[in-house]
Automatic annotation (TrEMBL):
Signal peptide: 1-25
Record domain CRAL-TRIO: where: 101-277
Name this polypeptide is given: CRAL-TRIO domain-containing protein
Domain of life of the source: Eukaryota
Keyword Signal included in the entry's annotation: yes
Keyword terms of this UniProt record: Signal
UniProt keyword annotation of Signal present: yes
SMART domains linked to this entry: CRAL_TRIO_N, SEC14
Amino acid sequence: MPQVFTSLFLLIACLFLKQSCYVSAISVEKYLSLSLNEKVALEKFRERVDPILKQNFMKTDAYLIQFLRARHFDGDAAEKMIREMLQWRKDNAIDNMRLENWRDMAQDFHATIDTYDKTGRPVGVIDIYDWDIRQAVLQGNGRRLLRYVIYLVENITTQMYERQELGMNVTQVVVLGNADGFNVIQHGCPLCLPLWIQFIQIVESYYPQALDELIIIDASPAIQVVLEAIRPFLSRTTRDAIKIFGPNRAKWMAYLDDKISKAERRPKYGGTKPPMDY
Ligand SMILES: *[C@@H]1O[C@H](CO)[C@@H](O)[C@H](O)[C@H]1NC(C)=O
Ligand SMILES: *[C@@H]1O[C@H](CO)[C@@H](O)[C@H](O)[C@H]1NC(C)=O
């Protein structure tokens, strides 16, 4: 209980003293191990982009460094990337997404956003088996489905920034999927692939380095077909972040137990958290 109160107190303090909280909670020294050269690059980069950044979470070291790292510390390229991200957010009204009504999507495409790994990273959990992507595309809902998935990404990345504000060392998110029943026709159909590819391009361009791991369990050989098709679109960081487990429960169980407590996982993921009532 005292911990809850401390967090609440910190949250309230942060709401009132926004600026100073950022400075104290997210300092390079505390959060990230950077070489001297990288620190210098980060400070230069901050001076360049600070005038165009309006939201506080974007001004943090943890955020800025992701763009620099994605562009190998090339300041020009990282600035271009930031500008493109801001334009994309504006063109697509990303900041207002949380106010939109997603009930129809949430009922048909099951995902949860209330799981955390042992280090406090938010975990987006996607029940891939019941996502009929093909049907959504055929019904003309492909774009809406993509927007819904971006809404989910926004939710868990925002949760990450909120945790940073509380002083938690959380700079990445995790995605966990159960691919039991994945089939090439429903999920990897030729009509569906552009959706996957667009989604990956969005994540790579506008949420660089935010993914700690993408863990897929109960994967059939069919999912490999899709992964091979999208592999060329992945950055090396993303490729390295993907972990795929077949139906051998013992193997993925040990891996997940190590990373996410059973109490945080729902039964399909080998845990004890009560199932979501969609
Ligand atoms: C994320 O979604 C949950 C459930 O819909 C909601 O309660 C929460 O406020 C959202 N958080 C953010 C940061 O959008
Ligand atoms: C913060 O988390 C990162 C990645 O998990 C880790 O490498 C680093 O040591 C942590 N830093 C602190 C101060 O806990």
